[in-house]
Amino acid sequence: MEAEKQSEWGPIAWAHLSSVRNQSPLIQCITNFVSMDLTANTLLSAGASPAMLHSSNETPDFTPQVHALYINVGTLSDNWLPAMKLAAEIASKFKKPWVLDPVAAGASCFRLKACLDLISLKPTVIRGNASEIIALANASVGFTKGVDSSHDSTDAVEAAKSLANSCGAVVAVSGAVDIVTDGNRVVGARNGVPMMQKITATGCAVTALIAAFVAIDPLQALEATASALAVFGVAGEIGMEMARGPASLRMHLIDSLHGLDQTAVISRVKITTS
Question: Into which family does the record put it (predicted)?
Fold first, then answer.
């Protein structure tokens, strides 16, 4: 039965990637300085169109035109936070899906409050590591290793379900197994390689990819999110076959995502339903 459930996901993931390639959704990215390059190139290699636009002066004109919005608080500042909130408000007003990456949410009171304020603006998906999701679910600052997680993804299943139920978003927890839940259903994406953790901004990049997948299937955000996580992981697995270390894996990851075909996706995607 488990194998049957898993086999259903390959075609679903391929359908999402194919739609992104065919529709080339425009994704507004308000993200951190560290991740801009990899985020933009990940979206481009998947077939989406990135727009790294974060000015409050442009947002009222631009955000209504996008297919999805991606907000990442990695290098959060007083100057950027109002732009993030404005973009989220406009996305919600115009019924555009938007995705939040609450980087190091529990590291400081300023950062936690900023993330909670953004969550009040109804993101479609929240994607973070286990420590970030636990901090948000508990609304508390706690021990953190900067942007690294102090917990395994499986430690945050209940926190993720609680957060999803309280805010209405699909919640994804990255880890050795990526957990995705809407508060009721829980699925696990098991693709990827450990070396991906040695490349800065892979988490940021996959959250942007989630935004692209959700842009083309907003009514099935859980399926789109799980598909994006698995597809990115498959690209990492294929890239690792040619890589010699983190730097070359970064290059091969982007190339592999661009070159993924139906056979690779359907045969390699590992998503299971709990």
Answer: Belongs to the Thz kinase family.
